[in-house]
Every structure is written in C-alpha cells, then in structure tokens.
Amino acid sequence: MIGISGVSKSYGQTVVIDDVSLTLPKGGLTSIIGPNGAGKSTLMSMIARLLPIDRGTVMVDGLDVALTAGDALAKRLSILRQDNHLAARLTVSDLVSFGRYPYSKGRLTDEDRGHIERALTYLGLDELKHRFLDELSGGQRQRAFVAMVLAQDTDYMLFDEPLNNLDIRHAVAMMKLLRDAAKDLGKTVVVVLHDINFASCYSDHIVVMRRGRLFRQGVPEEIIREEILIETYETDFKVRDMDGNRIATFY
Amino acid sequence: MSPDEIRKSSRLILLCLAALALISMVAFMTLGAKGSWSFVLSFRGTRLAAMLIVAYAIAVSTVLFQTITGNRILTPALTGFDALYVLLQTSIVFLFGAATLTGLDPQLMFIAEVAIMVGFSLALYRLLFGSGRHNVHLVVLIGIVLGGLFRSMSGFLQRIISPDDFVVLQDRLFASFNVTDQTLVGVSALLIGLVTIAIWRMFSVFDVMMLGRDTAVALGVDHKAMTMRILVLISVLVSISTALVGPVTFFGLLVANLAYILMPAAKHRIMLPAAVLVAIICLVGGQTILERVFAFDTALSIIIEFAGGLFFIVFLLKGRVR
C-alpha cells in the first residue's frame, strides 16, 4: 500500500501539488490521469523520492520514503521516468543488468541472470539484447528501459508515461504486459497516462489529478463519465460502452 | 555485441594500448641516451613517473567528471582549477617578484598549491550541496564564472607587473614535464595511491551514476553523497596534476573521448584503464617526440593543446563520434 498524506510541493510561489492525500491499494494497476500541469509526474516523482517533499509524507508498505535508506527502498519500489537519454554506449542486456544493482551491487549472481533473461524475454528483446541502445528505435529503447525496471523485481513499479514513443501495437502490448505483471506476478503497478481509453480499459483503479489537487478516484466505471472528464479536461467528451469497456471520444 | 565479444575485444584493445604505452615509455627512457646509464635512468625515471602521475590523474578525473555530468565535452578544468593555479602564481609574482617565485621551496609550494586548490573546491561544493539543492551543472556554471573571474584578475595583475617578471611567470604557466624533484613525485604518487584505493571498489557505482540522477536514485544509489565524493576525488586528482606540471586543458578531453571511441562498451572497469593508457601514450610518446624530433624547442602542452583543440573541433563538427 502506498499512503500519501498531506503532500505539497511548490516551486517558489507556484504550488504544483496542493495537499494531496491518497491511498494507492496494493496489487492491481492504478492509472493517474489529468491535464498537463496537473502534477501527475511530480506526485509520482515524490512517491519515488526523486523529488524532495515540501510537506506531508509518503509511506510505502509502512516505510517513509523520505527517511528510508535508498538501497532498501530500491528493492521495494522502482520508477521509470519519461525521457531516458544516455550519453554512454551500452547494450540492451547491459542496461537491463542495472536493474539488479540493488541486489548484486554490480556482481551478478545466477539468480540475477535469471531475472535479466526473464525480463528480456518478457519484453520481446531476446533478438535485440546484444544491440547497443543507440542502434535502437525509440520504442525499442523504451522497452529496454521497462525491462530494466522489471528486472529490478520490486513489489511496486511506477511508470511515468510508459506509452511514449510506442506505436499502437507496442502500446497495447505494453499495457497488457503491465496488467499481467499486476495480475500474475502480484505487482502493484502505477502509471501516469495521457490516453484516457487505455486508462479506462486496463486499470483497476483510476486517480484523476487537476490543478495540483486530487480531483477524483475510483474504478473506471466511476471515473470515465462525461461530466467528470469534461470538468477535468475542460473539453467536450462523449462516453460510450463498447464490448464492456467505457470508451471516451473527444475528437 | 554479446558480452563475450565485448570482453574479448576490450581485452584486445587494452593489450594493444598497454603495449603502445610500454613502447613509448621504453623509448622515452632509452632514446638518445649518452653517458652514464645510472644517471640517465634516474633522471629520466623521475620525469617519467611525473608524466605517468599526470596521465593517470587527468584521465581518471576527466572520465569521472563526464560520468557525473553526463556530458562528454566537459572537463574538470571548467570548474576553475587551472584559473586558480594561474592566479596563485600571478599573485606571488605580483606581491613578491619573480625572484621569490623561482626561489621558493618547490615542495612547500606544491603542498600549498594542492591544499589551496582542494580547499577551494571543497568550500565551493560544500556551499552548493549544503543548501539542499544539488546540481552538478550549477557547480560547473559557478566554476566557469569563478574561472573567468580568476582569469581576469590574473590578466590584470600580469599587465601591471614588470615585463621581466612576466616572462618568468609565462614560462611557469605552460605545463612543463621537466620535473626533477623526486620528493614531489613521491608525494604525488602517494596521494594518487590513496585516491586509487578510494575508487577501486566503486566501478559499478560509477556505472550506475552514468545512467543519470533519476535512474541512479531509483536503483538505490545515494546520488548526492556519491556526487560529492566523486567531485572531491576529482579535485584531489586535478590539483595534484596541476601543481606538479601546470594546467593542461584539452588533454583530458582528448584522452577521454579517444577512450570512448576505442572501447566497445562504456563500463568504467574497462573505460578508466583505457583512458589512462591513452593518456600515457599521448604524454610519454608526445614528450619523446618533442625531445628527439623538435629538440626541446617547445613545451609539450603547446602540442597537446594544439592537437586537443583540433580534435575538439572535429569532434564537434562530426557530432557524436560513432
């Protein structure tokens, strides 16, 4: 369980996260949606201690992220940020091996190698594992980074817009993979999404942020509703039921 | 490339580099030797040791600096070290005259210079990192500004000292590898040894740091403490090298990027030795050519800066060399 209580963050005079209290349940896939500048990524960064928290606390399984040692937390919680630029020349399998750093500190054991191989296979990277990252397309590189997070094998996995750079086929595959990781491996997956319909079809739980505050949260049926989406995005929406999913159109 | 291929090709490249480094060292020690061998060997041996120390210090500090900044065209020189060195030398000449500068006990001078430069960088980092923020690029930026300040102050002082003093000073400000003081070389070697012990077991942490702050934090590295630690190590290395032979600006950039181009993968375990070997080849080989071909007519640093400058331009024009 991730418990967020009274969390605020401001840059100078600008408040970007305003007193957010929220509990993300253990297990399942939670999506965080909301318009640009709603504070989704900032909140996620604070949960993963990438940004210092101005006020309030974030507890992951009873551990305060601001006080817990970094390497202890790295075995429970992992995060993938949006833009992952690397100056260094690394192969895909080199990159994925870094996911084992919290456990092995650079000396890979057989168990580590098993995790790395499984993560590569899971992301369909077996063919590419000896290629250098700068020889891959944006989508392939994105999958390599996701494989690294998977190899880290933490109970909580946070992804900041994991569908960036992915075409439709790979975006669907990625969401299925994250849902399966939640369902089959018992992981807790939290994603920041821009595509409302992906959130609607794949999430167990949706959190809506708006202007730095928690706006709504609940199961997709409660959230993907015309009045809520119109208020959130200040855009006209139509929501239809299609094959048991709620699909929003806004074109 | 598969891990085995990478291991094989990096081992091969490292062996070739080591052989070249060895050849240049032997050439430096023996070419054109006349008279008593014991004198030649001990005289050249001291200078060789000084060059090895500088090669090591510059190569390691530059690679580590580029690792923590995530940028391959930065060198630790940007944080104002060489400008501070120039200012120190200039101030002494300005205040006490050139005779005092040449008359000073070189060992005392060396220790004072290292202490002042390390102290300066420690104060700077403490100030920047103590305020809760930590941003390597801010360190670089402030280093550049302070470097500019030091340079302007030196420039001002140099304009108002007597021309005779200025000639002596100018000679000091070009890196020169004609170090003959064995004690200085010994002290430097000892300090470098201590730094080496500190970095010996940290290769995999360096690799994680190379992935950038966010990923490093997510993998459980205390990024702030580690950055501070690496910056301190860098400042010790650069200070030793600068105090021993004077400022060498482009050299680090040259050897680090040559190492990146030569080696198949970016792990520090192979990158650091490769950069050190390239540095030894450039320095010792360059000095040998300088002495035997150009008959000591110029300072090695001039050649290095010339070649380094050309390389830098080519590197920028070609974008990322791959």
Could you give the topology of this structure?
The complex is a heterodimer of chains A (251) and B (322).
Chain A: E1 2-11, E2 14-24, E3 28-33, H1 40-47, E4 55-60, E5 63-64, H2 70-73, E6 77-80, H3 92-97, H4 101-104, H5 110-122, H6 138-151, E7 156-160, H7 168-184, E8 188-192, H8 196-202, E9 205-210, E10 213-218, H9 220-223, H10 226-233, E11 238-242, E12 245-249
Helix pairs in contact in A: 5-6
Chain B: H1 3-30, H2 37-69, H3 81-96, H4 98-103, H5 106-130, H6 136-160, H7 163-173, H8 182-200, H9 203-209, H10 213-218, H11 223-245, H12 250-262, H13 268-292, H14 300-317
Helix pairs in contact in B: 1-2, 1-13, 2-8, 2-11, 2-12, 2-13, 3-6, 3-7, 5-11, 8-11, 12-13, 12-14
Keywords (chain A): ATP-binding, Cell membrane, Ion transport, Iron, Iron transport, Membrane, Nucleotide-binding, Transport
Subcellular location (chain A): Cell membrane
GO molecular function, one term (chain A): ATP binding
Beta-strand segment tally of chain B: 0
Q: Count up the domains of chain B.
A: 1
What name does CATH use for the topology of chain B? ABC transporter involved in vitamin B12 uptake, BtuC
At the first level of CATH, the class of chain B is Mainly Alpha
Q: Per DSSP, what share of the residues of chain A sits in E-state strands of 2 or more residues?
A: 25-35%
Gyration radius over CA of chain A: 18 Å
How far is it from the N-terminal to the C-terminal residue of chain A, by CA? 37 Å
The description of the largest β-sheet of chain A is: 6 strands, mixed
Q: Please estimate the helix content of chain A.
A: 25-40%
Just name the CATH architecture of chain A.
Answer: 3-Layer(aba) Sandwich
Number of helices of chain A: 10
- Please bin the fraction of helical residues of chain B: over 70%
Succession of helices and strands of chain A: EEEHEEHEHHHHEHEHEEHHEE
Unreliable residue stretches of chain B: none
Intertermini distance of chain B: 15 Å
Family (chain A): Belongs to the ABC transporter superfamily.
Protein name (chain A): ATP-binding cassette domain-containing protein
Subcellular location (chain A): Cell membrane
InterPro entries (chain A): AAA+_ATPase, ABC_transporter-like_ATP-bd, ABC_transporter-like_CS, P-loop_NTPase, Siderophore_ABC-ATPase
